[in-house]
Amino acid sequence: MILRHIDRAGWVFLGMVITAGLLIPALNLFVPADNFFHVPDYLVPLLGKYLCFALLAISIDLIWGYAGILSLGHGAFFALGGYAMGMYLMRQIGTRGVYADPILPDFMVFLNYKELPWFWYGFDMFWFAMIMVILVPAILAFVFGWFAFRSRVTGVYLSIITQAMVFALMLAFFRNDMGLGGNNGFTDFKDIVGFNIQAAETRAVLFFLSAMALAGGYILCRWIVTSKFGKVLVAIRDAESRTRFIGYRVENYKLVVFVLSAVIAGIAGALYTPQVGIINPSEFAPANSIEMVIWVAVGGRGTLVGAALGALVVNAGKTWFTGALPDLWLFALGGLFVFVTLFLPKGILGTLSTGWEKAQRRFRSDGSVPNGVPSAAE
Amino acid sequence: MTFAYYRRLALALCLGFLIFAPLSAAHADPVDDALALFATDSFNDTASAIDAIGKSGASNSAAIVTALAGGKLFFDPATKTVYYRDAAGKLIDAKTAAEVAAEPAGLKTVRLNNRLRTLVAAAAGSLDILSDDPAKRRSAANAVFKSRDATALAAVDTALAKETNNGVKEALEQARAAIIVTFAGASEADKIKAINTIAGRGDGDAAALLRSLPADIPEAVKTAAADALSDIEIKQAAWAAGQNIVYGISLGSVLLLAAVGLAITFGQMGVINMAHGEMVMIGAYVTFVVQDVIRTSAPGLFDYSLLIAIPMAFLVSGAVGIAIERSVIRFLYGRPLETLLATWGISLILIQAIRSIFGPTNREVGAPSWLSGSLDLGGLSLTYNRIAIVIFALLVFFALLLVLKKTALGLQVRAVTQNRRMAAAMGIRTDWIDAMTFGLGSGVAGMAGVALSQIDNVSPNLGQGYIIDSFMVVVFGGVGNLWGTLVGAMTLGIANKFLEPYAGAVLGKILLLVAIILFIQKRPRGLFALKGRAVEA
């Protein structure tokens, strides 16, 4: 049923993601290391990280591309999901920490905590942590969105206060007495639901789960944007006042999609933490959140597949640039962004598909339509 | 002021002398005793002598202690007379302070060991109370106030008797009062009087002293102390509030400088310039370059370096701004979200450019001599560079206001803001106005950079630190309204300083951000919102 809504680009994308989700772990685990097709161990979590970013980009595209909500603080939801997972992973370390305290994580022993702060209760249980991965970003998004949308904060004002929100969270998480590891954050994880987090098999499974989450996230978002609900979102994006006058409760639509997007971002963060092995307050940096928006813009806003593509392209570029020419990375990122906003307002995918349609139309019309008639899109 | 005041003072002094006359009389002449001890050539006796002379309050005791420290204190073993050699090299009789005409033979130096050197240093400290330098006397009096060493009373009295400097006299009186309050022999009335003197000081030390009074004092003294303490606390709270306001204004001025350029580009042009912080950073680096050139080629001009840097920074940042406007922003008018993202890309490029040219580390920007030091006003202390920033921020603000309200350029800017096509029809070159407006906003940011170079690290990240605060100020104050920016900056600055003592610097900032987020819910267009049709556009 749901799958009916997926277009051709979506099928190609899903096919690639699911194939990668199966193939890369297989090539890593079952192909001998000296074989050409072997995927080295370091590459699996790196690619897994890209998949998390792609899921995050899709969640941003859902609100920006379809509902016109430009959040410059989406990193907050991603990081909160990551922190919820990190808290679970910290509790799993147990007595293997430096101070070998069975309950308190190392940083708490170091900071002279006598007992576990209340908000850490329950994080030793996987199911509870997973609920929190969803609940914490959802609650923040709900409270924030409730205030913002109800009082009709829109456009750049909304962008600026989302930035203030993520900035405030960054300052808060950098504090040592926040009880969340201060500026070091969480690291040195040992295992996840009983499996060694460093083992190739665990990483392969995590990679597979990330691919499935990305595919699932895409299908869900695609379903939303093609449903009637999605049509209303697009109407809000294009003419908010008119939609309101027609009789839609605009703020409720926005709130629902904003919370949903935050939850998807939180899940991306939860998958990110065990694969990268660290979560710290720099994830809340406003610059990070802006960079996420760039992925979407580069790939193509309002296309979902393009958002994921943009996240993959920019992050692969970042890995390559920061390795090969570290000084040039900011030039490249900044230049890419200026270039995309000026010359590719629809992003890579949008521009490609427009070009493809144009070529098709020219091929079909076969000269029967007089040249020089501009299409409606232009 | 007071004749009555002086009369009271004199009365207090007389009373003091009357009470302590017997006390001093008990040691007939402490200097004599001390000098005798110096002449015994024993370390222990010398120690007692140093102690005695330090507390004697004798007029030449400072000279004696200085001579002792310099190994220039001698005694004649035969006559037990003590002499010292003064700075001019003349031999002086320590007792009479008269120059010795014929130097006696066989003088021995008073010897010191390490323990005694420590004592000498301590004695020299308390003898500062008799020094010729008023600042030294004052700090010595304050030291006595804190130590409340009853044995220093005689020295304080001596110093008081000949003190002419009013400020120091006051400090000495307070020191004396501090001793009397805890002095077992003093009468109740004197103690209450002393408490009043201490209360007049009105600072944290006075409060600490009053709090630490022993429990066995008479009830009347106790109430007087409690009253005085609450007086001091009220006074101190007022000074602290004043200090917070002043610091808040200082912080607000910094915010104003950083935000006012943004208010122009955001408010007048609808451009979200995320590279605004980098314009500030460029201004700071211009200051660095100007100072660098001055250091190598014209060191004499260093004191004027900031004055030279201000127009330079305006021109450089303004030129960069115009270049950005012409190459990128003019294609994006009417699409604020796109300008936000494109200018963020530009800000990354500028940060990396500065990092490539000047390196990633902080650059040293010096302060001209006229900006060092501070102004003390009662309980307030203000550094000159902070005062200068407040003045500079207000100058920039009002200059900008004048430009926008009173000049042809300002008129045209407002015309283009309100109705671009109509303005164009009236013959205004709108694209030129766009470039000039953006250049003006960027140039002002550059001047802010000159000011910030005096109080912040000049590093490639300088601008990033201010961009969010600047947006908060503009959004809080109300977009498109310069007065809103002024009020917004000052409100946020002062609120920040009042929150800090209770919540800590970081938490205070978080609270403020949350407050602004909530405030925007209430007034989505800021404190001074523009009204009318243009707002919705």
UniProtKB/TrEMBL annotation, chain A:
The signal peptide stretch is: none
**A GO CC term assigned to this protein in UniProt:** plasma membrane
Query: What organism does the record attribute this protein to?
Result: Terrihabitans soli
* Mode of membrane association: Multi-pass membrane protein
Q: Which domain of life is it from?
A: Bacteria
Q: What is this protein called?
A: ABC transporter permease
What transmembrane ranges does the database entry give? Answer: 12-31, 43-64, 71-90, 125-149, 156-174, 204-225, 252-272, 292-316, 328-348
Its localization reads: Cell membrane
Q: Does the keyword Transmembrane apply?
A: yes
Keywords, A to Z, come to: Cell membrane, Membrane, Transmembrane, Transmembrane helix
Q: Name one GO molecular function term.
A: branched-chain amino acid transmembrane transporter activity
Pfam families the UniProt entry points to:
BPD_transp_2
Automatic annotation (TrEMBL), chain B:
What is its subcellular localisation?
Cell membrane
Task: Tell me which stretches of the chain form a coiled coil.
Answer: none
Instruction: Kindly indicate where the leader peptide sits in this chain.
Output: 1-28
| Keyword Ribonucleoprotein assigned | no
Give this protein's Gene Ontology molecular function annotations: transmembrane transporter activity
Show the PANTHER family listed in the entry. Answer: ABC TRANSPORTER PERMEASE PROTEIN (PTHR11795:SF447), BRANCHED-CHAIN AMINO ACID TRANSPORT SYSTEM PERMEASE PROTEIN LIVH (PTHR11795)
Q: Report what the protein is called.
A: Branched-chain amino acid ABC transporter permease
Provenance organism: Terrihabitans soli
